[in-house]
Design a protein that fits this description.
Elements (H helix, E strand, L loop, with lengths): L5 H7 L22 H12 L6 H11 L8 H14 L2 E3 L7 E3 L1 H9 L1 H12 L4 H23 L2 H24 L4 H7 L1
Amino acid sequence: MGGPPPWVAQMFGPEMGAGPGGRGGRRRPRVRRGDVRSAILDVLHTSTEPVNGYQVIQTIAERTDGVWKPSPGSIYPTIAQLLDEGLVEDAPTGRKAVQLTAAGTAYVVEHPEEMAAVWAPFAEEHDDEATNFKQVIAQTVGAIVQVATTGTQDQREKAVEILVDTRRRLYGLLAEGPEDTSADSEEE
């Protein structure tokens, strides 16, 4: 079995327990129309040398922690459009690389809000505590499934004891109620 059962995804979302690539509980920000264009311009502006389309894709993925990795089908036509607009030009390196023209550099400098807006949705903080909680649940369910499917009878019996104790302790935690931090601050 590869991962938790389907009901876990229904409870916690389809990205529950997902691996790298900006997933694992984080919702993928929407990429707006024009963001690819702005991202390419910004990548070229911050690059120390001409870059090709593949390098643009890789840089965007790195800047967004793998959450946004545009397809070649969106990058290359947009580069062609920027070439037509005179904002980028083929680099003299002899390889399929592009660089900003003077007009492209001026555009980026004159539109800093547009460049920043492309990256803003990916920089927003997410709730690490909630993500970690969900990941632990997913990992625990995965371990339970492994014991249930491949464990010996003795291992399954011990797992049931652990789960019963864990359930009892979790309910006990809720029975204690929330910690009252206001009393601590009044004493000081």
